[in-house]
Design brief:
Helix content: 25-40%
Strand order of the largest sheet: 1-2-3-4-5
Largest sheet: 5 strands, mixed
CATH architecture of the largest domain: 3-Layer(aba) Sandwich
Shape: elongated
Radius of gyration: 19 Å
Number of helices: 4
Distance between the termini: 39 Å
């Protein structure tokens, strides 16, 4: 088991270290409307400078990779979306082959959930397919009525 790195040594090992960060709650505050999330002031400049010193700087998020690249564009930063199932390479979003392989099964499961879930649930569009999620805004909990 490795020991935590002494902060005074970070500069020494930067050239062989990857810095992987999340977007929501790390670079951007958590907000009520996910589409309104934006990086804190100065964050993108800092990411670009870090990308010039570290072996890799990457944003890894549950959000789509293209969304990350648009909202958090910084030179030298890698963008991995949908928890690593997508990556922006040369300006284009590439899906992992594993994600493509399960897309038909995911679509079939989603179709089944549409038939069995209450009307207070909505479908959220994602590049890799659609995701069923609770969006009952009339309830403070944000849960779908009739679903746990």
């Amino acid at each position: 088991m490795s020991r935590p790195l002494d902060p005074a040594r970070v500069a020494e090992v930067a050239g062989r270290t990857a810095l992987c960060l999340d977007f929501d709650g790390t670079l951007a505050p958590i907000v009520d409307d996910p589409e309104a999330a934006a990086p804190l002031e100065g964050t993108l400049d800092l990411l670009g400078r870090l990308a010039g010193r570290f072996a890799a700087v990457a944003l890894v998020s549950g959000r789509p990779a293209g969304w990350l690249a648009e909202r958090a564009a910084a030179p030298g930063v890698r963008y991995l979306g949908l928890y690593g199932l997508e990556e922006v390479v040369d300006g284009l979003v590439h899906a992992a082959p594993e994600a493509e392989a399960v897309r038909p099964a995911a679509r079939a499961a989603l179709a089944g959930s549409r038939r069995s879930s209450p009307p207070s649930c909505a479908t959220s569009r994602r590049p890799s397919g659609r995701v069923r999620r609770p969006t009952d805004l009339a309830r403070p909990s944000g849960r779908c009525r009739g679903w746990p």
